[in-house]
Amino acid sequence: MKEDRRASDRASVCSCVNLRRASRAITRIYDDALQPSGLKVTQYSVLANLSRAGAVSVSALARMLTLDRTTLVRNLKALEQAGFVEGAPSPDPRERGVSLSETGRAAVAKAQPYWLQAQQLIEEKLGAEGVRQLGALAIALEGSAGDDEAGDEPGETG
Amino acid sequence: MKEDRRASDRASVCSCVNLRRASRAITRIYDDALQPSGLKVTQYSVLANLSRAGAVSVSALARMLTLDRTTLVRNLKALEQAGFVEGAPSPDPRERGVSLSETGRAAVAKAQPYWLQAQQLIEEKLGAEGVRQLGALAIALEGSAGDDEAGDEPGETG
DNA sequence: CTCGTATGCGTGCATATACACGCATATACC
DNA sequence: GGTATATGCGTGTATATGCACGCATACGAG
Fold first, then answer.
1. H-helix or E-strand containing A98?
2. Distance (Å, rounded) from C-alpha B129 to C-alpha B13?
């Protein structure tokens, strides 16, 4: 029982599996490139967004990242412990404001060239058009995920 | 500097972030569709491959799935506890053979129509061409992940 | 047979992801 | 003031992912 599958035959029929595979592969490429900076691409993403956003609430940041809020809560925890992220005052007591610390700003600055290197490598692999399509892909798939639900009243059926 | 991001502006500049976002989104779509079957798309993927492969070693299955072996070890654990996967004899004592149980076969059969539903939904969203490109994408990105080393360090010499 | 290498396996650790809950607080309505 | 609703937050639980390690076993060289 040999797996004799060539590249052209290795494409799964499942779009989800294909996309997840691509995601794992590209994550490895970026993490690899970012390795000297000590950041994972997921962490770099959070810090870079925070860098642009300034002081924001956890929920707001989660929306920016199109990431589940509770996921971000945990991702932030590590970044706070590393000293990259610190609390920020917020007008609304319900909100927890966060922002980049000086250390965090330095970390982003240090990592950025490595990130750019990965970006360029990807552009070589996929071409400018392929890169452009990736953005469209995410948007197309997010378009109706969880917003297309009907008939979910809060009144229990019993 | 106002942030007034609409859908078309919501595309990240980072290919990795875009792809990961797309991956999360499509995973949600498939998991959602598969929900009545009680399987996650990741689990369905393992079981479906096992269904085609028959009895295989953990490492061989991991290669089929382009998945880290140790990740698969843990994913299999849940499937074994659920009774979907069982041990299979192997000629080589080092290998641990696994195969679908009857229950597992039934689970795949039950889930398949839901999976197909998701497949079709995606094809509607992305078009046949878009779907085709996803397979190519994974392969393009896996192509040189970890087998191509470039000594092109950006600065950081001190 | 013995040693070194290759292969297969599982675990410890760290991180990512998200759903279900419950808690706290702002706000609208009365 | 008091109640219902909306919003923000963190945790418990479950799963996914991969790297570093160490253990067991096959296999070729001597």
1. strand A97-100
2. 24
**A115 CA to centre of own chain:** 13
* Cβ <8 Å between A23 and B28: no
Record: contact A113-B155, CB cut-off 8 A: yes
d(CA B121, CA B134): 15
- Interior/surface letters B90-99, b for 16+ CB within 10 angstroms, e for the rest: eeeeeeebbb
Number of residue pairs across A and B with CB atoms under 8 Å?
Answer: 188
Angle of CA points A103, A47, B143, to nearest 5° = 120
Q: Are B58 and B98 in contact (CB under 8 A)?
A: yes
| pLDDT per residue as tens digits for the range A29-61 | 999 999 999 999 999 999 999 999 999 999 999
Distance CA A8, CA B136 (A): 8
Assess whether A59 (CB) lies less than 7 A from strand D.
yes
Write out the two tokens for B45.
Answer: 């993927």
Q: What element of type H or E holds B113?
A: helix B102-142
Q: How far is residue B115's CA from residue B29's CA, in Å, rounded to a whole number?
A: 10
List, in order of start, the domains of chain A with CATH numbers.
38-129 (1.10.10.10)
Specify the nucleotide whose C1' lies closest to residue B46 (CA): D16
Does nucleic acid strand D have an atom less than 7 angstroms from the CB of B75? yes
pLDDT tens, B10-36? 668 999 999 999 999 999 999 999 999
Which CA distances in Å does B128 have to A143, B105, B131? 18, 29, 5
Asked whether the beta carbons of residue B145 and residue A20 sit closer than 8 angstroms, the reply is no
Structural contact between residues B97 and B55, judged by C-beta atoms closer than 8 angstroms: yes
